[in-house]
Amino acid sequence: MLRLHLHSGRRERVEARKKLVFVIVEGPSDAEALGLLLEQLFDTNRVYVHIVYGDITSERGVTARTIRSKLGQILRFYMRSNHLSPQHFQEIIHLVDTDGVYIPNCNVVEDKNAQHPWYSAWEIRTANRESIIDRNLTKSGCLNKISETPTICNIPYQVYYMSCNLDHVLYNVLNATDEEKERYSLAFAKKFKTDFLGFIKFISESKFSINKGYLDSWDFIKQDCHSLERYTNLGICIARARNNQIANITS
Prior knowledge:
Blueprint lengths: L4 E2 L12 E7 L2 H12 L7 E7 L13 H15 L7 E9 L10 E3 L7 E2 L4 E3 L2 H19 L3 E2 L2 E9 L2 H6 L6 H15 L3 H10 L8 H8 L9 E2 L1 H17 L1
Parallel strand pairs: 2-3, 2-4, 4-9, 5-7
Antiparallel strand pairs: 1-3, 6-7, 8-9, 9-10
C-alpha cells in the first residue's frame, strides 16, 4: 500500500470550528515548494491545511478501475488514524504531474542510451518504449477517471495538473535530479514566501496558465503534446479558493 507522508511531520488536532483542506502532491520537493504557499490560500481561522505526498496515479497495480477506491482507502485510513470523519473536511485538492501521458505513441522514442526516461516538449526518449507506452495508457486512464470525480468519501475533490511535471511548471526545468528538485523547491518557496500575490500572478497569469473551466482545462491537456509542454490549471484552484474567502467575508 502506498503511504502518504504528512509534510509538516506532525499531527494536528482539527478544532470543531475548523475544517480540513487535505492536499495531496506527488513528492517531497513538491510539498516543500508549494506547502506554505497553498496554506496562505485559506483563512486559517476557518481551516487547517494538511499537505501530504505520494504518487498515487503511478503506483503499481492502480488503474482507472481502482484509482477512486485507492484514494478512498487512503482517506479512510487517514481519518481513522486521526479520529476524523468526512464532516471535518472542507475539500481534497490533488496535484499531479502529467508526465506526457497523453502524447501519441509515435512521440515515445526508443533510445538505448537513455538510462532513464528523458522528457522534452515533443517526445519521451526511453530504453524501454513499450513500458512507457503502457505507463502512459494506465496513468492517463487514472487521470481521466479522477478528473471527472466530484467527491472522495463524500468529501469534495478536484485534481489539478502540472505538465510535464512540477519542476517544469515552477522552474521551467525538465529532467531534474532529486538534488536539483530539492534546491529549486527551497529557492521557490523562499522567493514567494513574502510575495504571495506574486505567486498568485505567476501561477494564474503566465503563458502556461490554463484558466478555462475545470473540465475544459482537462480537455486541453489531453490534446497533441500538451501533456509534455509547460502548462498548469492550478490557477483555477487558486481563483476558487480566493472567491470562497471573499464569500465568507461578505456572508
